[in-house]
């Protein structure tokens, strides 16, 4: 076998491998995207054409009508704005609180560490539907009923987030950097704030997405806490119109589709941060 | 001194309560938001707002509010399915003194269902659901059947289904509805749906066995489409004329006419259920939670909502069938309904309301309903034996209803 | 820890000793300082509900009767729960769906993440966005979309199957099930677990992929270069470089999947229209819990069931931590 033949075979092998990879990636993209395409198509129809039988990918012409229906049904943009402010504020605080706790659990040895970790993992296992009543009791005792604070503050210490950050610190913050920083005379807080946090960027970006998505989609807590229309969040409003059998599906689908957009935006921003950890390769 | 001041403030607030405008929030589910918006200007002395959530969410929120004693509206709308468990819960204002003089104007079976075990009125009916059979007139005519002949009893009804099947038409969307109708509409005076007056379970009684048998006969005979109600398939079933009959409340008429199957106008009729049974299928109540700041003002809203004119307006706005029996004398009740080929169906609805026997709400009703539906599914879909399924329900009820 | 040894190596003088004490004090209390927000918020919002639920599980309580109506019943709720056939049936349903949806999640997510990282930044960006879409959409919306697609007469799944069963090329594959078309994806007890699991799988693959992508981002390129120079091929690099270094993330992801799937609620709830269809096989233990608590208004019994569930998940998690925890938690 000549050199060129060998290169050819290796190249072919590589190309075939790449093709398989592309097919795999593409197929999965199709599977994930399809239901959204389908619902977007449905959002341009009204109910009479929406559920017609057979496979048809034709777009309807009812989108303007659905939009005006939507505005008539609910104070859509107020809800979007409320959801946005709750999610942004809640996410910011939880990034700080969770990274502080996760960092402490990963780097320090101290009394009760395992117990705290156990309690955290344990508290993930308690079904939220059942703690709704005591949650509401606490909120109304604190006088937080019908405030946005009640909807985000309890969730800023998400145990998932703390666990996630802990794992990132373990994987990506080398111990010797912390030592070096301490020898330089930096305080604990400065070490955390100036050295550790920047290293955690991919992890924080992931957490930001998770928190933002959770706060944006949260429904049960706003339902029992928020009861004046100007305070309501978008999930509450969209669900509110689903009670009737003749749910205006076109309008609801359109509202749902629009309400996903901020999540996509935050994801695009955060995923850049996440990936940048790969290219910058902060510390070796 | 302090006590004095407090008393003074209380007195003052009582005066303001009755003399000045109050903010009243009513918590409910759609379509009542449409109705409230249409009528709230008529109650000019108070400022009325509505907190709307979908049907299930609304009731869950209400349960949380009752559990914690805070956060409920000044007036709440309650679906008939929950009334039984709510009226004895102690969380609502006794409305007897407001309501007793006018109670006679409302459908008696519904008024009775709003009373607690202590005989006090905790919830008042605002709309009703007279239960009827919707049927396709054209199918009956084409096959030479007469309505009275079909509806003589359940056997003749099923015979009609067999003939329909030969033509490739289904008798009903989901056979489960037949079982539901049968055991709901054949209760004896003084009984509950699932329990007798002493709280003993009735689910293994003849009423349930027969109900299950009817449904099973229809399912096994291929006379239903296993099309679950309130799904898109069900709606298109109406549009395409897939099934010949459907039992439901009077309120289904509005849905059929407006959006489910407007093109089938003139093809439908309504009738009593087989064997001339009367029953009710849905309905809503109004109540005032004890936590409401100002029960007098809350009552003003309820009184307004159940007044004759507003009841009629509700019938026209959102097809909520009035609980006020005085409305049945309105000229509109004699109007022929085009969608039903000119039938004066509202007279039939009113007649049913007059004849429905009151069913005593019992403590375990919600549990029993779920278990019975689950047993029905096992019998119809998985071929489980009727006796065994019902015995299992009774065993579970004995454990669960405490 | 390392830091202590470093400090103790310093020459000991009087001020240094003081500084050391101060350091020691700081060393001891800083972690608690960092955990302070957690302690405060968890103390206010987390502790009370837990104790309330423990208290509740020993009582008979109908919530609509208000807080005053609790009645002490001792262990009755636990006895009732543990001898309840429905509880064990729903526990089994939950376990089956957890495995059916959980295992494929990670089997797909790992290679997806690995391939994604190899791509150019633009393609990677758009593809991850696509994969992540299901996760950021509210479960209720997702389940509604699938509910429409699973619909028996008008759903796209059945429409496609029906089309394929009649198309000449594919008819023979589907000839076995042609008779039973259209399928009641969410109505039939025999199908519901697969239908629910598919939605759960679909929703969380992207999430796990993102976790793994971010995990791969922590691995230095130098290691891959070194492996390449040593002549490792793609698979070997994945197997011997990526996989071991991803361990904390795999551990994290799988822990979340175990806990999340055992608490599965929304997807089966919406797909079976609030538990109306396929109640025997489609109801998870969380759905049952909801039914007992909010529909049957028996909060005490539901609290007991949730503690039983808690213990079961706890056992699974503990076994998992015991088997893989040392590697997964790392840094010990």
From TrEMBL, chain A:
It is a multi-pass membrane protein. The chain crosses the membrane at residues 20-41, 84-108, 115-137, 149-171, 192-216, 249-270. Pfam families: BPD_transp_1. InterPro entries: MetI-like (IPR000515), MetI-like_sf (IPR035906). Residues 80-270 form the ABC transmembrane type-1 domain. It is found in: Cell membrane. CDD domains: TM_PBP2. One of its GO terms (cellular component) is plasma membrane. The keyword Transport applies. The keyword Nucleotide-binding does not apply. Signal peptide: none annotated. PROSITE patterns: ABC_TM1. Keywords: Cell membrane, Membrane, Sugar transport, Transmembrane, Transmembrane helix, Transport. Belongs to the binding-protein-dependent transport system permease family. This is Multiple sugar transport system permease protein. It comes from Reinekea marinisedimentorum.
UniProtKB/TrEMBL annotation, chain B:
It is found in: Periplasm. Its main location: periplasm. Keywords: Signal, Sugar transport, Transport. Residues 1-21 form the signal peptide. One of its GO terms (cellular component) is periplasmic space. Belongs to the bacterial solute-binding protein 1 family. This is Multiple sugar transport system substrate-binding protein. It comes from Reinekea marinisedimentorum.
Automatic annotation (TrEMBL), chain C:
Residues 91-320 form the ABC transmembrane type-1 domain. The chain crosses the membrane at residues 32-58, 95-117, 129-150, 245-265, 304-324. One of its GO terms (biological process) is transmembrane transport. One of its GO terms (cellular component) is plasma membrane. It is a multi-pass membrane protein. The keyword Zinc does not apply. InterPro entries: ABC_transporter_permease, MetI-like, MetI-like_sf. It is found in: Cell membrane. Keywords: Cell membrane, Membrane, Sugar transport, Transmembrane, Transmembrane helix, Transport. Belongs to the binding-protein-dependent transport system permease family. This is Multiple sugar transport system permease protein. The lineage of its organism: Bacteria, Pseudomonadati, Pseudomonadota, Gammaproteobacteria, Oceanospirillales.
């Amino acid at each position: 076998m000549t050199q060129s033949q060998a290169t050819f075979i290796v190249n072919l092998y590589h190309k075939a491998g790449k093709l398989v990879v592309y097919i795999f990636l593409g197929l999965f993209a199709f599977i994930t995207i399809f239901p959204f395409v389908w619902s977007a198509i449905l959002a341009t129809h009204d109910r009479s054409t929406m559920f017609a039988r057979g496979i048809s990918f034709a777009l309807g012409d009812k989108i303007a009508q659905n939009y005006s229906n939507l505005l008539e049904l609910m104070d859509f943009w107020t809800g979007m704005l409320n959801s946005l402010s709750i999610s942004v504020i809640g996410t910011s605080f939880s990034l700080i609180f969770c990274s502080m706790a996760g960092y402490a659990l990963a780097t320090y040895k101290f009394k009760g560490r395992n117990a705290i970790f156990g309690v955290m993992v344990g508290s993930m296992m308690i079904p939220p539907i059942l703690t709704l009543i005591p949650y509401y009791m606490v909120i109304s005792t604190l006088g937080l009923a019908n405030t946005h604070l009640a909807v985000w503050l309890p969730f800023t210490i998400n145990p998932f987030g703390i666990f996630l950050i802990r794992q990132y610190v373990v994987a990506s913050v080398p111990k010797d950097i912390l030592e070096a920083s301490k020898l330089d005379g930096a305080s604990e807080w400065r070490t955390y704030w100036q050295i550790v946090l920047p290293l955690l960027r991919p992890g924080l970006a992931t957490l930001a997405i998770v928190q933002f998505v959770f706060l944006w989609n949260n429904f049960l807590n706003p339902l029992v806490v928020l009861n004046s229309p100007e305070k309501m969040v978008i999930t509450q409003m969209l669900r509110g119109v689903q009670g009737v059998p003749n749910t205006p599906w076109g309008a609801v689908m359109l509202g749902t589709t629009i309400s996903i957009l901020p999540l996509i935006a935050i994801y695009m921003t955060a995923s850049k941060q996440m990936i940048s950890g790969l290219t910058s390769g902060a510390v070796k | 001194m302090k006590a004095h001041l407090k008393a003074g403030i209380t007195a003052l607030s009582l005066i303001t309560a009755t003399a000045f405008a109050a903010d009243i929030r009513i918590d409910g589910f759609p379509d009542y938001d449409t109705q409230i918006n249409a009528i709230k200007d008529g109650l000019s002395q108070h400022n009325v707002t509505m907190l709307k959530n979908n049907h299930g969410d609304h009731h869950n929120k209400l349960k949380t509010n009752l559990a914690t004693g805070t956060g409920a509206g000044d007036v709440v709308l309650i679906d008939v399915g929950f009334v039984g468990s709510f009226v004895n819960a102690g969380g609502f204002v006794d409305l007897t003194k407001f309501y007793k003089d006018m109670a006679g104007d409302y459908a008696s079976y519904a008024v009775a269902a709003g009373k607690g075990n202590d005989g006090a009125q905790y919830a008042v009916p605002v709309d009703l659901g007279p239960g009827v059979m919707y049927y396709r007139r054209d199918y009956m005519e084409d096959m030479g059947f007469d309505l009275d002949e079909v509806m003589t009893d359940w056997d003749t009804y099923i015979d009609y289904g067999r003939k329909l099947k030969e033509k490739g038409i289904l008798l009903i969307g989901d056979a489960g509805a037949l079982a539901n109708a049968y055991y709901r509409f054949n209760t004896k005076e003084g009984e509950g749906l699932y329990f007798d007056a002493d709280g003993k379970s009735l689910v293994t009684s003849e009423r349930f066995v027969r109900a299950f048998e009817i449904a099973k006969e229809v399912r096994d005979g291929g006379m239903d489409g296993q099309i679950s109600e309130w799904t898109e398939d069900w709606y298109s079933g109406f549009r395409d004329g897939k099934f010949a009959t459907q039992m439901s409340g009077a309120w289904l008429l509005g849905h059929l006419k407006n959006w489910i199957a407007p093109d089938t106008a003139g093809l439908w009729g309504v009738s009593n259920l087989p064997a001339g049974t009367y029953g009710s299928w849905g309905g809503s109540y109004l109540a005032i939670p004890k936590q409401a700041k100002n029960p007098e003002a809350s009552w003003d809203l309820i009184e307004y909502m159940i007044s004759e004119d507003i009841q009629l307006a509700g019938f026209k706005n959102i097809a909520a069938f009035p609980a006020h029996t005085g409305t049945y004398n309105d000229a509109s009740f004699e109007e022929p309904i085009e969608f039903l080929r000119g039938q004066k169906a509202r007279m039939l609805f009113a007649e049913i309301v007059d004849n429905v026997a009151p069913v005593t709400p019992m403590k375990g009703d919600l549990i029993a309903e779920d278990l019975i539906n689950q047993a029905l599914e096992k019998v119809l879909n998985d071929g489980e034996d009727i006796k065994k399924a019902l015995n299992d329900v009774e065993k579970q009820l004995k454990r669960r209803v405490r | 820890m390392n830091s202590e040894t470093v400090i103790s190596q310093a020459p000991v003088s009087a001020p240094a000793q003081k500084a050391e004490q101060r350091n020691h004090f700081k060393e001891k209390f800083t972690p608690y300082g960092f955990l302070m927000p957690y302690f405060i918020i968890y103390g206010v919002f987390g502790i009370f509900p837990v104790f309330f639920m423990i208290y509740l599980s020993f009582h008979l309580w109908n919530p609509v009767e208000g807080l005053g109506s609790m009645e002490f019943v001792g262990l009755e709720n636990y006895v009732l729960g543990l001898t309840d056939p429905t509880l064990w049936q729903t526990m089994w349903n939950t376990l089956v769906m957890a495995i059916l949806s959980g295992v494929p999640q990670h089997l797909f997510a790992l290679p997806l993440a690995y391939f994604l990282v190899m791509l150019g930044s633009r393609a990677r960006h758009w593809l991850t966005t696509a994969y992540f879409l299901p996760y950021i959409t509210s479960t209720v919306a997702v389940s509604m979309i699938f509910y429409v697609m699973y619909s028996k007469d008008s759903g796209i799944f059945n429409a496609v199957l029906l089309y394929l069963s009649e198309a000449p090329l594919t008819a023979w594959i589907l000839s076995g099930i042609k008779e039973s078309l259209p399928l009641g994806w969410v109505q039939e007890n025999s199908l519901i677990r697969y239908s629910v699991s598919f939605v759960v799988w679909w929703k969380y693959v992207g999430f796990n992929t993102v976790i793994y992508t971010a995990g791969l981002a922590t691995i230095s390129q130098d290691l891959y270069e070194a492996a390449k120079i040593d002549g490792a091929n793609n698979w070997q690099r994945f197997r011997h470089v990526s996989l071991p270094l991803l361990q904390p993330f795999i551990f994290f992801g799988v822990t979340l999947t175990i806990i999340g799937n055992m608490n599965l609620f929304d997807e089966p709830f919406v797909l079976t229209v609030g538990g109306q269809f396929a109640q025997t096989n489609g109801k998870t233990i969380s759905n049952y819990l909801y039914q007992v608590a909010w529909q049957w208004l028996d909060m005490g019994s539901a609290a007991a069931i949730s503690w039983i569930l808690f213990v079961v998940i706890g056992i699974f998690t503990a076994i998992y931590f015991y088997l893989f925890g040392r590697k997964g938690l790392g840094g010990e």
